[in-house]
What does this fold into?
Amino acid sequence: MNNSQIPACPLVICLMGPTASGKTDLAIGLREHLPVELVSVDSALVYRGMDIGSAKPDAIELAAAPHRLIDIRDPAEPYSAADFCADAEREVAAIVAEGKIPLLVGGTMLYFKALLEGLAEMPAADAEVRRQIEQEAETFGWPHIHAQLMAVDPELAAQIHPHHSQRLSRALEVFRVSGKTMTQLRQSQLQRDNRPFTERYKVVQLAIGPRDRGRLHDRIAQRFSRMLEQGLVAEVTQLHQRGDLHPDLPAVRAVGYRQVWDYLEGVLTYDEMIERGIIATRQLAKRQLTWLRSWPDLQWLYTDDEQGRALSREEIIESALNFIGDATI
It folds into this structure.
């Protein structure tokens, strides 16, 4: 495919999948065949100084395939889905203006959903209301908060795990502050917005991952061990020693970072930290797969065949190119 073949409605490729599934490697591979520019869709990669635990592409990978929206925030500054949508819209428009194809790659499903479906204007965060919700959760547990959300916004509650504290807290906070649920606010926005992202661009959505969940679990455990060998504890120690970061920040709550933080605080032993880190990463992958199972217009790129054989990098790239080619005919 060359620039003259890009359709009148500009093409945008979305590449998603669970953690440790091989998204970055495939994105870099596609850049060897298509005039794409990469945009990161990852809530941890936005933070500077969080390289090892976020599996951020290394210097060699970034030199071969630069990623936009990496290292754009200090860990002390929260980054929201609304922030991502504004940044992604700007980067996508700039890439299209250059005559190239935006390739959005990452595993933060909420960011993809917000960009593709639109994000309603939500009330500003209310620290006091959030504190009240967190106190209730501490007393009664997060499933109790989930039940409260289910009572007022069953559609959204069905999409959130009863222990996903950050999303539950924000969803209930929005209702208590505005008197309207997130679902109601999003529906109102859809009625106002005549030009959603998917009408302005020709969007091809791909997901990569193994058929065998056990293979993914093995990759997660191996990658976490490799992160520790690469210096994950030292990386988190630097963050911990800053003094201006705390466990309530989204950056510190990131999978892997929170477990090492707890180890540094003396909450977990080293072995417990490893176990909890691997478990938390597997739970993240499970949540990502839950999102993807109900994702519309999604083409799966499996990294193994029906007999369990691992596919080569070249086979996976070829499969992706075929899907993209078929979608643009």
Summary: Residues 131 and 276 are 26 Å apart (CA to CA). The two ends are 11 Å apart (CA to CA).
